[in-house]
Amino acid sequence: MKLQHRGKPDPAIGALGASRTRVLEVLQDAGTQLNVNDIAARVGLHTNTVRFHLDALVAAGLVASKAEERELPGRPRTLYAANANSDNAGSRSYLLLAEILASSMSTQTPEPREAAVKAGQEWGRYLGESPPPFKRVDAEEATERLVSAMDTLGFSPEKVTRGRQRQVLLHHCPFREVAKEYPEVTCSIHLGLMKGLLAELDAPLEVERLDPFVEPTLCVASLASLAPGTGD
Fold it and tell me: Which superkingdom does the taxonomy of this entry point to (predicted)?
């Protein structure tokens, strides 16, 4: 049966790139060591391009290289062979998995938004960093930590303060493809992540709301002050 997937291409599929994957496949199929010229002839690429891909595959631990053993004068050639673990470097389809889970939650959960926020909060707490005992984290430090965490997660955040109003502008959504199709679930998970990150700090600050896609590549999180010790 041919699999038909109506979603967008998964950026994780073929993460090595088509040419680099082909170089790896040639080495896997060869079952022996090959030099750059041999590989270039089999994949139909220039030797310099093949060297570039081989360097990346060696750095990733998928290919091993060694100097050719020879008694003749001259510089020995470099030989390459696929490592035993290279078979695990095939395609991934995490986007498809995310779409399956998001669609399932949106249609089979009685309160999908609330469930998604709760799931995000749990993961936000897990990913967050608790302060040391007796350490109080103020709103400014909590905002900085939230921005740092969201940056690590790939949201390209920007802190904006206007008087007593605090916002975090999110210029990139790593869940964009799924968020566009299932915003109720995906954006709620995103909101929950931020809530959980702040809750783990026990800071006098909470994420009051998240406005998704106020511009094509911008979401805005609005923060609100809490009385100390009243965090989630």
Answer: Bacteria
Cα 162 to chain centroid, rounded: 31
**pTM exceeds cut of 0.70:** no
pLDDT tens readout for residues 38-70: 999 999 988 888 998 999 899 888 899 999 887
Cα(95)–Cα(167) distance, rounded to whole angstroms? Answer: 29
* Dist. CA 100–CA 102, nearest whole Å: 6
Q: 34, 58, 89: which is the final residue of a domain?
A: 89
CA distances 205 to 140, 195, 198, Å, are 9, 9, 7
- 181 CB burial (10 A radius; 0-12, 13-18, 19+): middle
Q: Which two tokens mark 58?
A: 């060696």
Do 27 and 117 have their domain in common?
Answer: no
